[in-house]
Write a structure and sequence with these properties.
This protein is an alpha+beta fold. It has one domain. The protein has three helices and four strands. Strands 1-2-4-3 form a four-stranded mixed sheet, with no helix packed on it. The longest helix has 16 residues.
């Protein structure tokens, strides 16, 4: 289940985020964000640097969550991340 939170950065700006950990949390909007990042940064690469890929996703503003920033959590093997990776790998295979 997605969790919501707020934090204040060093400049005093308040940020609202949504943490996605389950595969059910990964919406079509999140998959579109992943596709955009793949197309813009990784489509010509022989292999994907998943740490870099996921870092680029983190912080993206999601309309479907009231403009909150995307947080993929701290577990690199969460069901949400596995779903995103599977989606991108399917796109790569289909060309």
């Amino acid at each position: 289940m997605a969790t919501y939170g707020t934090y204040t950065d060093q400049q005093g700006w308040e940020h609202h985020y949504v943490t996605l950990t389950s595969k059910e949390d990964v919406s079509e909007e999140v998959l579109r964000v992943a596709e955009d990042i793949f197309d813009g940064w990784f489509s010509d690469e022989a292999r994907i640097d998943w740490e870099d890929f996921l870092d680029r996703m983190d912080g993206t503003h999601l309309d479907g969550h009231g403009g909150r920033e995307l947080d993929l959590g701290s577990q690199a093997d969460s069901p949400a991340i596995r779903k995103i990776k599977a989606h991108i790998n399917r796109i790569r295979r289909e060309g």
